[in-house]
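User: Teach me something about this protein's shape.
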Amino acid sequence: MNFFGLKGRGMGLVDIMIALAVVVIALIPVIMMLQHSTSVMSKTRAYIIGYNLMMEAYEWIMAMPYDEVTEDLNDSLLKLEDYTTDSGYTITYPKSLFRNMGNVKRYIQIDEDTATHCKYIELTVEWKNLTGDRKSKMVYMKFVKPDERVIAGN
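Assistant: First, the predicted structure itself:
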């Protein structure tokens, strides 16, 4: 028999080593691509969770009366612990939610302008992940007293 010009000879050790080297060289980019996609997926998941935590707090703040929006919320509503609302609902954050995210914090800073009856609120969500610190920040929200609201465009 004549397989690939070998004329009855078997494959030698050198032939096997060359074939193995070609296979390994071909697999290296595939393995690196899988590793990179896993890392990107983990980062994206963390950003989505951070964004959702920020939007959750934003919606709570916008539903609150003007006078109750203070930095005291950092010690109650904005903590990422079990929280029971005034109406009796309990909000629970499972530990598995923060997988690959360490030291997750959510807080607000408020600058109040008494002349215009506005509060400028900066809502921040911070966390640490495998590649270092990450911070997702929602820039200033303008929160106006209900009796002082101005029609848009005026």
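Now, about its shape. Residues 13-63 form the longest helix (51 residues). Residues 148-154 have pLDDT under 50 and may be disordered. If you'd like, I can walk through any region in more detail.
User: That's plenty for now, thanks!
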